Amino acid sequence: ETDSDKLAVDGLPPLRAVVERHGLATKKALGQNFLLDLNLTGRIARAAGSMEKHTVIEVGPGPGGLTRALLMHGAHKVVVIERDDRCLPALEEIAAHYPGRIEIIQGDALKTDFTALANKGPVKIVANLPYNVGTQLLVGWLEAEPWPPYFESLTLMFQREVAERIVAAAGDSAYGRLGVLAGWRTRAEIRFDVPPQAFWPPPKVTSSVVHLVPRSDPLPADGKRLSLVTQHAFGQRRKMLRQSLKPLGGQTLLDAAGIDGTRRAETLSIEEFCRLANTRV
Ligand code: SAM
């Protein structure tokens, strides 16, 4: 018996052996950096909190390291969405080990209707995705209507630098559109960092796990409009708002919202951004 014949704590083969047996050479184009350590994926699963009654939607499961941790930590049901069909046999093996508890969807998460998956009981969303996809999905989840949304929490891996933008507040150098959207609708916090060596292959930078919980009563604002205002304001973050917001009405808009046009985007509170979003000229 060699090391790779031994089973992991969940009774399935070790992830390294799964990756080798299914020939899952990682693809850069799909942003594949796999987590092969079940202790670490267990830590991410714990960051998502209790899931006994929950459907956990996991985006980008790859060979299933995080999926296995979610199941081991008692997720009632896990729905996985994976774009790379080479990963499906490995995911089917996990499904056979946990009968009735996994639904596997092959497809692009950016084209998935998440609300349609979320019709049975409370939902939590967990993902370790390529960061472009992750950011795009996060913005979609933050703009969800109606609010409070169908999910109870989001537990997501990002590059450390992106995680800092998500949790940034007014005045922070990382404050921008992501910080405004996340701060407006959720309580967002960085739970812990994950070093490059934890992944195969190791990425260039440190990653962080971010946990976001929807606020029950965010300030009223139209998410798309808020996104648009912050995009313009921070698109030229060193300029005064009367300049950067010109395409949306510039000084006229700022006057109507009662905001000094000589200020810069990074000084505005979330409440002030909501006021701008709610003002039409
Ligand atoms: N969750 C696994 C882990 O932690 O080891 C894999 C993480 S890897 C960073 C990202 C995974 O997302 C890959 O398996 C990749 O194929 C998948 N992926 C990339 N783009 C995707 C998309 N648009 N929709 C669904 N899955 C995607």
Tell me what you see in this structure.
The chain is an alpha/beta fold and 281 residues long. Helices cover 36% and strands 19% of the residues. The chain has twelve helices and nine strands. Strands 4-3-2-5-6-9-7 form a seven-stranded mixed beta sheet, with helices on both faces. A two-stranded antiparallel sheet has the order 1-8. α3 links the parallel β2 (55-59) and β3 (77-82). α8 crosses α12 (270-277). The longest helix has 13 residues, at 223-235. It is elongated. The N and C termini lie far apart (74 Å). The model has no long low-confidence stretch (mean pLDDT 95). Bound molecules: S-adenosylmethionine. Residues 30-35, 59-62, 65-66, 81-84, 87, 108-110, 128-130, 133 line the site of S-adenosylmethionine.
Write the layout of secondary structure elements.
Layout lengths: L14 H7 L12 E2 L2 H10 L7 E5 L5 H8 L4 E6 L5 H10 L4 E5 L7 H4 L5 E6 L2 H12 L8 E9 H8 L9 H9 E9 L4 E2 L6 E8 L8 H13 L5 H4 L5 H8 L12 H8 L4
Parallel strand pairs: 2-3, 2-5, 3-4, 5-6
Antiparallel strand pairs: 1-8, 6-9, 7-9
The structure holds S-adenosylmethionine (SAM).
S-adenosylmethionine binds next to strand 1, helix 3 and strand 3.
Write down how many β-strands occur, each being a DSSP E stretch of 2 or more residues: 9
Specify Rg, calculated over alpha carbons: 21 Å
Instruction: Give the SSE string.
Output: HEHEHEHEHEHEHHEEEHHHH
Distinct helical segment count:
12
Uncertain residue segments: none
Largest sheet: 7 strands, mixed
Spatial gap, N to C terminus: 74 Å
Looking at the structure, what is the overall shape?
elongated
> Helical content, roughly?
25-40%
Strand content: 15-25%
Structural class: alpha/beta
Lateral arrangement of strands in the main beta sheet = 4-3-2-5-6-9-7
Q: Look at the structure and give the mean pLDDT.
A: 95
Instruction: Give the names of the bound compounds.
Output: S-adenosylmethionine
Binding site for S-adenosyl-L-methionine: 33, 35, 60, 82, 108, 128
Function: Specifically dimethylates two adjacent adenosines (A1518 and A1519) in the loop of a conserved hairpin near the 3'-end of 16S rRNA in the 30S particle. May play a critical role in biogenesis of 30S subunits.
EC number: 2.1.1.182
Subcellular location: Cytoplasm
